Amino acid sequence: MAVPHQKHHLFFILLLLSLLLPTYARLSLDHSDLKAFANIQKDLGINGQRSSSSTPCNTPGVFCERRLSPNGTYVLKITRLVFKSQRLTGFLSPAIGRLSELKELSLTNNQLVDQFPAQIVNCKKLEILELGNNKFSGEVPSELSSIVSLRVLDLSSNLFSGNLSFLKHFPNLENLSLANNLFTGKVPKSIRSFRNLQSFDFSGNTFLEGPVPVIRKGESSRPQYPKRYILAENTSSTKSRNTSSGSKNYNLAPAPGPSAAASHKHKKGKRKLAGWLLGFLAGSVAGSLSGFVFSLLSKMVLAAVKGGRRDGGPAIFSPLIKRAEDLAFLEKDDGLANLEVIGKGGCGEVYKAELPGSNGKMIAIKKIIQPPKDAAELTEEDSKVLHKKMRQIQSEINTVGHIRHRNLLPLLAHVSRPDCHYLVYELMKNGSLQDALNHTSYRSKADGQWARGANAAGSEDCLLLHY
Length: 467
Hints:
Radius of gyration: 51 Å
InterPro entries: At_inactive_RLKs, Kinase-like_dom_sf, Leu-rich_rpt, LRR_dom_sf, Prot_kinase_dom
Shape: rod-shaped
Structural class: alpha/beta
Helix content: 25-40%
CATH architecture of the largest domain: Alpha-Beta Horseshoe
GO molecular function, one term: protein kinase activity
Organism: Populus alba (White poplar)
Region (Disordered): 226-266
GO cellular component, one term: membrane
């Protein structure tokens, strides 16, 4: 059952190819590329027998791709020319510059001569330029660095001369070989800016001067590959034209072999793993510290908010009052309306009340009236004096609230209001000192106790009185 199903799919694939291939076959080579290739083929010395095909795109070593022309139709454009080891004896035609889509030009291991055509700089999409092991001569055009897409540049084993000023800006260059030529001068420092450069070889150029600029670790965007730096090797291995009794020898350390490269990559991997672990630990510690600091700040803010609220509420000085809400009735305007008045004075009245939630615990509430004064009538000096007095009252109340003495009735709490202050004490059944001195009804009820208290003043049996 599966075989017919597979045949069914194969039929549709073949049908699709039959529709596409004629379309590709009907495409013709761009007219400009056709004329340029005719000149290139002639100057390279490629005879007609090698290119007997009806279209250059079918010639061995010629690769074409479909491109959209300016008039909106599709045409074929030459993208690669690969003629390696073809025993070519001609030269590279200036027409090479008319192949606008050319990405690779490989002509290594031939007998090509003459100069480097400057028109090649018009091939802005060129990525691979391999002219090694030929007989090219003259200077390399300084404009070559305008081809920023170059990844591979091999001009080795030729007769190129002049300086290396063409090594200006190759941001994508990975492999550079200028070995065994007649270059002179110094290796430019600009190669330090070739961030993707993985290997370069200047060996066999006996007239080069000075050191090779050091490319430090981290200047390459792909440090996982080992670099191979070669300036000069044993001159006995170079061509005879480069041997000289006065030749200068700039020996660098030999390039790492495969085993060294593997070791280098292994070490890189270890360092990378260690970096990840270190980063993870550092991130964890930083996160923990950040969380701790955030929690601490949150608690401080909450404490400040609670403290602010506490400043506007009751100040509690005794554990007898367990919650601030137990004194919430004093915050109301009519909080004392239904309470019994047990004493009066020049500053206000004393009220008797039951402390909420205390199982019948009685308290005395002393009201200290603050004389009202219209804010509009206050001068700046009066306002300052008033604020000073209020601060003094608050300070004294806080001081009294923390005093504990056997002959002083402890202050349980203090509630501040805009027009008065409430002082909360534990209710003492024998009244106040004023009552005792003025012979009030409390005196008649506690004559015996008052007499004993007066006679034993200073003893441990002295009664505590409301002040």
